[in-house]
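Anyone up for a design puzzle?
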């Protein structure tokens, strides 16, 4: 038997090795192996077993690495699909499906010393008072880690060892699982009685699961599913999560597991709690594994193995959780499916929502994409029959959607001579909320104090030396910072231009820091908390701030997109959007869609309790369709007109995009290479129908981290064919040494 192996060093190639007889039982697809490669030994992963090899003089596998078969054959197939579709080397795709914490040989189970109480043979030996105390602490718990016992009984390891000598306790090394949520108190919950809309959605999902529930045989080739994906379009507060929970219960009852993807790690504390609470007891009791990038390598290792061993039947996580080895997999839920964080911004540049749909189809699992503001792509897929649309247009308990008022900031600017941060209307509304002890959330998607530092006399603007963006002023740290590369600079006290030296340089534009400062001046008694990535550096900061807000210790929460989504606070009756135009002016065909989604999501934070919510949207272009449709909560209206625009310009969802980005420190060389690349792409794509090639052109962010960037954008209705052609081109393409090329299929970030 011969094993086909990909190496962990990316070579876009697979290699054949003999399986020595003593390893035949251990080596299967997914097994990690040490193999001779040139003069070295390297690690690789077995991707296929074959009878014959086109090569002669094969070398043999040296040994197996780590625990057997960490990847299931099905997940391995998925990695292959990712490599093909997203045009990346197979070993890079493979690296993604197998997290580093699991791949690394050294990170393994953590062993700790555990102490248990024991009964010595014969008469109980005499103990000192201190020893009695320690024993009592232990006996209350039966067993505990040595470290914890020492801390809890305020004693030393020495004392515990004495007890061991007397036969009253045993001390032994044991695997101890790391649990990232160990310190949380979770109260069990029971299923709620669903309303009519929820019932209809759940029934559609469970019916599809029944149809898909053919006998599961992991070794059989994946069959095309009869049921496809659902798009659950439910307004904010319509109770989507409860539908997910009951759909998962249904999967568990049928002996199948579930994967739940949630976009932001920041959202997980509340979400994870809801899932753990539901499945922490009762007949469907199971561990809920959590996978995201904020876990330590050890925690990730343990969570992963809990899944592989089948002890955790539910997995919640960020995008890479789509590769979790849940088997058999009954259900995949992608919450907030429109979120861009599902797209990985480095190779393999996969989109977890799309991978979810592919995985679901291959493993016969039902896929539910949920959102209050579905992506245009998914919405379009319900129109062309690829997905089934499930709608929940009203809130639970028929709670009203908040009233959205758009404030024309041009008028506010006229009244106040200059642009105020708060319109009189919003100020008044905040005052009312403070009087009534209700809470307010204010949203501005830009951190820092001001977006630039300008000299009004000579026009100087403080620029990043490495990137084509202006530096943001951060008042608390008293420094200028680049939001692209992180470069920081001192704040000049006079204009740095030698001929100018004007002392009256000014801050232009605003960020959350400035909103917070202005708010403090306007409402000195209010308890205000800012939430953005400058302030919330650790997951505990975020949890603490949200916890304080929840129990009413904070009146006003000011934040970036960190507070826009998913949060549920009953006492929030006012939401203010400080500057709604911000996302409208991005050089991106999705700018309108993003603005609509953001406004709708932010507005959805208001009025989730008993009191009706009110939303103020401050804008300089108050009549823009994205703002007006959001004001009326008119999804269909927005989507229909946006689809028309996309169809006219041949943009997604009518086509798919492949974005080729070339980078170099030399702009001249870059221009030359970009022209050459375009010719090569044209040659490679000969015969592909309806291909639009735009560019080469400077990227919207021309310079980032000291590299110039040029782009070629390809749009086609037949992406798999184009991907194949591009992959072939990449293997032969010769670029100058200092020019690199990145291929992004279905990009969400066009900058
Ligand atoms: P969404 O995810 O659609 O924004 P949630 O699932 O967070 O909405 O539900 C909003 C609130 O309504 C939650 O507090 C949830 O517990 C509650 N809820 C959901 N379904 C029901 C129901 N059938 N009966 C009573 N309360 C419900
Ligand atoms: Zn920079």
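Challenge accepted. My sequence:
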């Amino acid at each position: 038997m011969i094993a086909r192996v990909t190496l962990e060093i990316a070579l876009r190639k697979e290699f054949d090795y003999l399986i020595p007889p003593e390893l035949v039982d251990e080596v299967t697809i997914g097994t990690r192996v040490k193999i001779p490669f040139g003069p070295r030994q390297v690690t690789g992963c077995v991707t296929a077993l074959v009878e014959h090899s086109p090569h002669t003089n094969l070398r043999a596998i040296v040994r197996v690495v780590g625990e057997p078969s960490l990847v299931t054959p099905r997940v391995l197939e998925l990695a292959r699909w990712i490599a093909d579709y997203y045009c990346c080397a197979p070993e890079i795709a493979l690296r993604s499906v197998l997290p580093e914490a699991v791949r690394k040989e050294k990170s393994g189970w953590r062993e700790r010393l555990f102490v248990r109480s024991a009964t010595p043979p014969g008469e109980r030996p005499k103990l000192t008072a201190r020893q009695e105390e320690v024993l009592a602490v232990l006996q209350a718990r039966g067993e505990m880690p040595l470290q914890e016992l020492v801390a809890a009984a305020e004693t030393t390891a020495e004392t515990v060892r004495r007890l061991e000598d007397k036969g009253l306790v045993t001390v032994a090394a044991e695997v101890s699982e790391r649990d990232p949520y160990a310190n949380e108190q979770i109260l069990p919950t029971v299923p709620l009685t669903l309303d009519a809309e929820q019932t209809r959605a759940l029934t559609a999902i469970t019916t599809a699961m029944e149809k898909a529930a053919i006998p599961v045989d992991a070794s059989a080739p994946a069959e095309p599913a009869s049921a496809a994906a659902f798009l659950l379009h439910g307004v904010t507060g319509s109770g989507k999560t409860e539908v997910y929970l009951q759909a998962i219960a249904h999967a568990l009852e049928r002996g199948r597991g579930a994967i739940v993807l949630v976009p932001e790690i920041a959202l997980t504390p509340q979400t994870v709690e809801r899932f753990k609470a539901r499945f922490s007891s009762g007949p469907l009791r199971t561990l809920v594994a959590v996978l995201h990038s904020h876990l330590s390598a050890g925690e990730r290792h343990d969570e992963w193995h809990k899944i592989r061993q089948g002890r955790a039947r539910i997995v919640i996580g960020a995008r890479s959780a789509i590769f979790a080895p849940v088997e058999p997999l009954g259900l995949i839920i992608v919450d907030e499916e429109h979120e861009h964080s599902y797209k990985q911004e480095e190779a393999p540049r996969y989109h977890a929502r799309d991978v979810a749909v592919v995985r679901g189809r291959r493993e016969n699992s039902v896929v539910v994409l949920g959102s209050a503001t579905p992506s245009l792509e998914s919405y379009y897929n319900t129109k062309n029959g690829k997905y089934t649309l499930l709608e929940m247009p009203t809130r639970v308990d028929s709670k009203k959607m908040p009233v959205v008022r758009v404030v024309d900031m041009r008028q506010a600017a006229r009244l106040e001579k200059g642009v105020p941060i708060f319109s009189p209307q919003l100020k008044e509304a905040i005052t009312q909320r403070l009087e009534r002890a209700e809470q307010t959330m204010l949203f501005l998607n830009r951190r820092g104090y001001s977006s630039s530092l300008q000299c009004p006399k000579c026009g100087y603007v403080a620029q990043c030396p490495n990137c084509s963006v202006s530096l943001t002023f951060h008042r608390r740290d008293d420094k200028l910072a680049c939001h692209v590369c992180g470069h920081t600079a001192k704040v000049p006290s006079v204009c740095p231009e030698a001929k100018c030296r004007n002392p009256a340089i000014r801050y232009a534009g605003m960020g959350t820091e400035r909103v917070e400062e202005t708010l403090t001046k306007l409402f000195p008694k209010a308890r205000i908390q800012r939430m953005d990535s400058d302030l919330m550096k650790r997951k505990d900061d975020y949890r603490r701030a949200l916890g304080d807000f929840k129990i009413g210790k904070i009146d006003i929460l000011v934040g970036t997109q960190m507070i826009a989504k998913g949060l549920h606070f009953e006492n929030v009756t006012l939401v203010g959007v400080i500057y709604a135009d911000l996302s409208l002016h991005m050089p991106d065909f999705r700018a309108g869609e993003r603005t609509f989604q953001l406004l709708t999501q932010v507005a959805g934070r208001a009025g989730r309790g008993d009191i009706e919510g009110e939303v103020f949207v401050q804008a300089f272009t108050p009549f823009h369709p994205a703002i007006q449709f959001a004001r009326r909560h008119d999804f269909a209206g927005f989507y229909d007109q946006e689809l028309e625009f996309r169809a006219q310009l041949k943009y997604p969802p009518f086509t798919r995009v492949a974005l080729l980005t070339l980078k170099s420190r030399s702009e001249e060389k870059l221009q030359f290479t970009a022209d050459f690349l375009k010719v090569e792409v044209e040659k490679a794509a000969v015969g592909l129908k309806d291909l639009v090639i735009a560019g080469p052109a400077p990227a919207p962010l021309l310079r980032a981290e000291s590299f110039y960037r040029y782009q070629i954008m390809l749009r086609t209705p037949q992406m798999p064919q184009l991907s194949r052609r591009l992959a072939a081109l990449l293997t032969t393409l010769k670029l100058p040494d200092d020019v690199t090329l990145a291929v992004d299929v279905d990009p969400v970030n066009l900058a």
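A detail worth pointing out: The two ends are 49 Å apart (CA to CA).
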